[in-house]
Design goal:
Structural class: alpha+beta
Strand content: 15-25%
Shape: globular
Number of domains: 2
CATH class of the largest domain: Alpha Beta
Mean pLDDT: 92
Low-confidence stretches: none
Number of strands: 9
Helix content: 25-40%
CATH topology of the largest domain: 60s Ribosomal Protein L30, Chain: A
CATH architecture of the largest domain: 2-Layer Sandwich
Length: 211
Amino acid sequence: MNDSNHNPSVGNHEPPEDLKRCIAFHGHLCPGLVYGYLVAKQAMQLLGLHRSQDEEIVAISENDTCAVDALQVLLGTTVGKGNLIIKDYGKNAFTVLSRSDKQAFRFSRKGYYRYEGEHQEEFGSLETAVAAGNATEKQRIRHKLLKSIDLLSKPFSEVFDAKAVEISEPPYAPLARSEACAKCGEMTMSTRMVDTSDGRHLCMPCAEAKG
């Protein structure tokens, strides 16, 4: 891919710096990334958030799409820190929680997407090619770019519903010592090990393996 795909112009303008960071992390601009970007920006505004250094913010994503990468970049919610929770229901919905304020908002995408940009005819042709599975790589990239630009131009309220919700605050990421598996010898989080009938402690792959 060329540099224009990694750092494309948005309409006739350079992307905002925070979107550039999302693109750099994700690898390219696409509609999925934009959905996450829009949600993260709105959550930061509604909850008065800055990027989480530890686990001050929790994001719960009901999908495992490209959108998650924008949440990681802007909100600082990551799997490694334990404040990004993936519940892969395949739903275009996200919940963002501020631990300090005990407030949370759930964002769910509204209805079907409709392109409303200035390249109606071109987008329609590209949409048909992509849906038929015979679009070229160049066409797929162009299709994603046009849709991304169009999404960024829409008011947030046209793309997502935002609703204040009450949720139980997730526990902080657990810490536990590591222990050598009695079969393979590899160091494993002790709380994730399986106790056997003969008193051994095995990692899950060894416990599930036959023989």
